[in-house]
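so the lab meeting is tmrw and i was supposed to have these ready like two days ago... anyway. pasting both below. for each one the top line is the aa sequence and the line under it is the structure tokens. i havent really looked at them closely yet so no promises
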Amino acid sequence: MLILGSILNDYGISQARLAREVSISRAALNVLIKTGQYPKQGSEYALKSAICDALRAAGVVDRDLVEAFFKDDAQEDCASGKSSERANTRTANVTTPRSSAAPSGATSQPMEVESEMLLRKQTLSEAARRKFAIFRDPFDEPQQASEVFLSRAGRVVREAMWQTAIGNTNFLAVVGESGAGKSTLREELAERLRAESRAVVLIAPYVLGMEENDKKGRCLRSDHIAEAILHAVAGSDTPKRSPEARFRQLHEALIASSRMGMQHLLVIEEAHGLALPTLKHLKRFLELKDGMRRLISVLLLGQPELREKMDER
């Protein structure tokens, strides 16, 4: 472990805050502190300089930064009952971190609390199950809508997805880390539409093996989406061979279905794997209309990379 980790603890600076200051991921900074391994991208010298500048701005004195990127021998010495002379010297010389009472004319910054890294999946022991007579894993995936736990934020997302499904919203992107519950909300939406007998056609192209380029996997292209829409809306029709005829066939099928009172919702999971051209083509699907009435809504579910792809900058 690098001495940098001890400096952050002494001055009450979180890894998340430092990672933001130097424009790297928190995971990369954590690996650097624990193993001394630098990110593959970028210059090691430039990263060290950026970290030192950020720590100076946070109030760390220069004498503490001299050995910031050395291994912290105190970890091993403490385990054997010894004390590291270098660690003791640095601890003795460390200045008091910035006081919570800000000087006049300055605003105090709330100290950030370091959160835990992702832990290994936890399960109930056999003894606990017998003790409380629990025969089914309470942390397993929900089997019905009543088992879905909804936080306040989850309820907001659930309602936004519902408004998109019934046609009040044309486009929605739900972004969250893996395991945040995006797919569960999508499954609950399908159950809710079925339970309320809503006239909504869910169109979900298969995304197995989908990647943003053909080197990593297979791109999901606009003609693949068109085939999925045709299959869901007019399954008995054979898609035309030429792109022009196929998209005309798609438009006519959506118009006919819409005039029968049906809503259409295109749902794409793992949308962070979409290629940028495909994301741009989705706008053209949204522009398909029957008069002034839009024919289809789009719901994207993806990880934070999707937000970066959709960033207007």
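ok protien two:
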Amino acid sequence: MQEYFILLREYGFFDYFLPFILILTIIYLTLQERKIVSKEERVNITIAVCISLIGIISINLSSFISSFLGKVFFALIVLIFYALLVGIMGVEPESKFFQYGSMLVFLAVLFIQFIDYVGNFTYAILTSYYFWVILTVLGLVLFLTKKPALRTSE
């Protein structure tokens, strides 16, 4: 079994194929859900494949994805344990305490995880690539999960 994984690594499976699939999935689902470009599935998959190929070719994403996702998954595990702890205490998931507390715990864990990338905190946090990636991902999550406001006609 170990030889199989070594063979996959030598062929670039973990460096190129898995990041390609990850980017393709995220872009395709965003295009399908929001119908930004077209309502047709073929158009959206074509655009997602093109953007994913350009992303894999132009940027070495494997090292970034492996370090970034490892830290994010650790943060998700902490968030799950937080949810279990709050659930044991009897707090409802729909309550504001649970929602804002979960967001605060998740952001605190992410901040602690990525603080080692920042040398001089006051200057480097704003110039850190990881800070802007996290900020962009959080913005996208908030934008994509926002429920549309109900409009009432007068």
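from a quick look at the 2nd one: The chain has a mean pLDDT of 78. Residues 143 and 150 are 16 Å apart (CA to CA). will dig more after coffe
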